[in-house]
Write a structure and sequence with these properties.
Helices cover about 90% and strands about 0% of the residues. The chain starts with a helix and ends with a helix. About 5% of the residues have low confidence. Helix 1 crosses helix 3 and helix 3 packs across helix 4. It is an all-alpha fold. The longest helix has about 130 residues.
Length: about 220
């Protein structure tokens, strides 16, 4: 299609060039005739003999009706020669240039279309990669949050268990110390009771009776 259009343009240019050449030849002939006629009018006053001889000969040769036929033949030959010269030599080169230009424009358009499609594919891949990255980041964040919650829950349970164990151990140590203290106080009280009975009443009380009495008093007072 581009080659056909280039050839069609070349044919149009050849026709226009031939027509322009014809018009140029006709215009140049008319201009020369008018110039010759004016020059002859100006020279009429000073060269009557030459003017008479010029009119006697019929003016310029291209204005002589007797030579119109040869002039038309040469005009046709010149037109045909110019047409073939333009059609076979000059215009093919112009057509080649136009074809190359059209082909280059077509290639550029094809390349631009390919680049546009490629850029669209790249953009689509970029959007897909971005979407996948966002989904992966969200899944990683969810997994990390779940791991942190699980670890925190485990640590909290372990802390509670350790605290309960330490509390029980502290309570056991306190109860043991309390029992030890009560035992010491009871033995001291037994000794004091024995000494008091001996000094105040002159009665010697054995350790078992004194311990029973102290135990009864401690049980009574709680």
């Amino acid at each position: 299609m581009p080659k056909f259009l280039a050839r069609l343009r070349a044919g149009r240019l050849a026709g226009r060039a031939g027509l322009a050449w014809t018009m140029l030849v006709v215009t140049a002939g008319g201009a020369l005739a008018q110039a010759d006629h004016g020059a002859a009018g100006d020279a009429a006053h000073g060269a009557d003999m030459a003017h008479g001889a010029e009119h006697a000969s019929g003016g310029l040769p291209q204005l002589d009706p007797t030579v119109f036929a040869p002039q038309l033949i040469w005009l046709a030959i010149s037109f045909i020669a110019l047409y073939f010269l333009m059609a076979k030599v000059a215009l093919p080169k112009v057509a080649e240039v136009l074809e190359e230009r059209q082909e280059r424009i077509t290639n550029d358009l094809d390349r631009a279309s390919a680049l546009r499609e490629e850029s669209a594919g790249v953009m689509e891949g970029y959007e897909k990669a971005l979407t996948d990255a966002r989904a992966h980041a969200q899944s990683v964040m969810a997994a990390t949050t779940a791991d942190i919650a699980s670890a925190s829950s485990g640590r909290q349970a372990q802390f509670n268990a350790d605290l309960a164990a330490k509390t029980r151990a502290a309570e056991e140590r306190i109860n043991a110390a309390k029992e030890t203290a009560l035992t010491s106080v009871r033995s001291v009280a037994v000794e004091i009771a024995q000494q008091a009975a001996e000094k105040l009443g002159g009665i010697k009380v054995d350790a078992a009776r004194a311990d029973t009495a102290v135990g009864a008093v401690m049980q009574e007072r709680g």
